[in-house]
Amino acid sequence: MKYLQFLSCLFILFACSCNEVNPKGEKEIRAFVKQWNEAHTQLKSPYLDKYYMAIVTYYGKERTRTQVQESKNSLFQQFPDYTQRALNDEMVITKEAANYLVTFTKQVSYSGIEAQYTSFLSVMYKNGEFKILRENVAENTQDLDTRIFPSSFDNKVIQSKTRKLYGDFNGDGLSDYATVISPEIITSSNPVECEGGCNSVIMFSHKDLNPITIQGAYKSQLENLKDLNNDEADEIGFWDIKPTSKTLYVYDATNSRLLTEPVVINTTVHKNLKLIDVFKKTGPNKITVTHSAQDHGKWILKTEVIILD
Length: 309
Description:
It comes from Bizionia hallyeonensis. By secondary structure, the chain is of the alpha+beta class.
């Protein structure tokens, strides 16, 4: 009987160990964060992307791993002598469900300036490696517009590389612009594979407008749809372009909300359709859309009138 009880205890212990979320301990997490800090030099910065998940909450904004790397590259272009470390190598590690919150005082040095910021990383253990889910500084941090933080240069760097669509997307009566950050395509075979996932992000020059992520989009085109819902702000159209279809997403940029269901066109059957063929403003808070639909096995063009909220 005692032998059976002993075996039962061993079985329970083994089962619990198999369900352990993260087999690594504090020592390994500290080593990971220390290596990440040490990689913040111009020489090592090209390897920073390996520390991040495919999608990261980066200083309050959702970014792809590639976009985070671009941000880091920009930092070192401006400040080649930049370094950072955890002050006195001190870190506080707190378990958050399956993840770990690592809080520390980040001491930075650049252009003869030294400063300290309460910083944190949210880290998870996946496929035998630690990866960063979130990176930020404390909410009460002063001088977040200082030149070493993404808010001061990210939009300028990212948007300088892409085509700009101008409009008044926040309704303040002044012109601003939007751009699309497209994923890096690894292979164009079917299905297409992209670095960090095939998602595109609409970015706005005005800091009050949040980025809009479109899942599964790797080739696109933007349209200024003008003010559709009488809020004095221009709406933005996003064409998701695929080999046999294109889909129009109509967004209210002020709140990142879709104003209608995506308008899908089968470009194999319905060729050479332009924006005016599929989308029109036909009255106050009213639009007319035309999309591809199947009717008794045949593809037809179907037109609908939509009343906007």
